[in-house]
Amino acid sequence: MVVAAASGTSLNPTAVNFSTSFLNITEFYILLRITRRYFSMVLFSFFLPSLIFFSCTQKQSTDKVFRYNEPNGIESLDPITANNYPALHVLINTCEGLVWYDSYAKLEPLIARSYEISTDGKTYSFHLRGDVYFHDDECFANKKGRKVTAGDFKYCYERVCDTRVKTRGLWVFRDKVEGADEFSKAPDKIKEIKGFIVQNDSTFIIKLVEPFAPFMSILTMPYGYVYPKEAVEYYKENFGFHIVGTGPFKFVKWDIDKELVCDKNPNYWDKDKEGNKLPAIDGFTVTFIRSPETEFLDFKEGKLDFQKPSVDVYGQITDDNGSLKPEYNFDLIKQPYLNTVYLTTNMNPKSEGGKNNVLGSNTKLRQALNYAIDREKIVKFVLKNKGIPGVNGPLPKGMPGFSDEVKGYTYDREKAKKLLEEAGYPGGKGLTLRLVYHNDESQRELCEALQAQFKDIGVNLEIEEMLGATHRTGQNEGKLTFWRANWGADYYDPENYYALFYGKNETPTGPNTTYYKNAKVDSLYELGLKLTDFDERMKVYREIDKLIFEDSPWMIVYYNQFIYLKQKRVTGMYVDGLGIINLKYCRIN
After folding, report:
1. Sequence-separated (6 or more) residues with CB below 8 Å from residue 173
2. Which residue, 239, 274, 309, sits at the end of a domain?
3. What is the pTM (predicted TM-score) of this model?
4. pLDDT tens digits for 232-250?
């Protein structure tokens, strides 16, 4: 679907005296919402008051089982395929690795009691705890979980690099660990990865090819989790449907598309700060309801303890400031989410999407569009305050290294018009751009608002909706020219964002889908990988910020927020900055 920019929009004479551009955006946005979503909004407006009426008779579960819904289903729980949120929510509560990020985003030892990093940054030595056991399970001879050893980590990490299985994590170790690349190319001939060393049962050593400062952060991902070889061999192709880990909760059953159940691990090793045995709840259950209205109804009735509200639900239960209306007896939580939403363009003239791309070859044109975006008004009136204006560079709020002192682009209509003229398109004459986005209601509304804002400086913008899978394939294969994109952090390290501007990471072998190249940026990025002192690395990344602001390969629009509802009886649970539900410290009163 292609939508041309609206023109000749009349102003509402009763409107508050905002700027002309704001009135155009708002009127255009509201008219489209009314014509497209009238009936669904009216029906939901009638439906929701009935939920309010019954809220005073809400019946919550009396047991201590945490319940949530996963509308998109779960594909597999095998850690080597876990690159999606539905699986991560379960795995973070059932499996563990050497290290982890706690609720304050601080890197801490986990199954590793302690660790050392060599002065050259290439050797990591981990000393394991002696009291961590795998869950009791049928895969063991006596059905009792055994102690975790260093050999288990070697097995799991080599499996991540084994191209004979359905691994999605090869990139994590392939170019970093000694021998991983060779093993991945010939796993039938090469029997082990020499950089994964078992010194003894309690000491595991990893040797890198070159220093890689964020390596510890990578180990916190599911690709760094440990599980027993016995389970993989016992369950074979069904291992992804019967995970065996070391975490606070153990897998019980999974009725596909109906219910997944995990109980507390009675043999869990960790305790809370008061010395109490963890976990404090009896388990958690996942349902797979697809309808957001039905899911919210179940939450209102106390059948669920957690829920992410849809756009419609959020709009009905909050006031104009985005605060929960007083008639609701549950908690509305808003927190930073390590996810940056931006527009970008293909800068490779040799690729399908980069051929004859005026945006890719015209820096001042990209700068002009950056100044034309009124991020504050988009967040307030389009996103209904479900986001943070993207004015501080690529790092989202909540990511270590984020700073309010980093100043990117802010709205400046006159500067945008001047740069547009310098770019060779005075008043936008002779210029038509097409922006593609994946088929999501909220993103369509965002692009319609951007369409109106660009129109205000004379730029004609067409917008095109595309299926999500097609959109992802297009940007990864260099087929798109100008598109709405977003990047969610894989781990808590700023390098995860700056890797998108590194020339050698260009798609399809890396995440640089823009094909952006700057020799100074590449040199600084490589320097940052060698610096183990975080503050020194951030000085390097601040220099990269300046260069990418000047080159403007991205037009950052906003930083996402994670917004969810939870029952008041629930305390201690949290959603981390990566958007993953952690129940280790959860309590149900």
Report:
1. 157, 160, 161, 180, 193, 223
2. 239
3. 0.76
4. 999 999 999 999 999 999 9
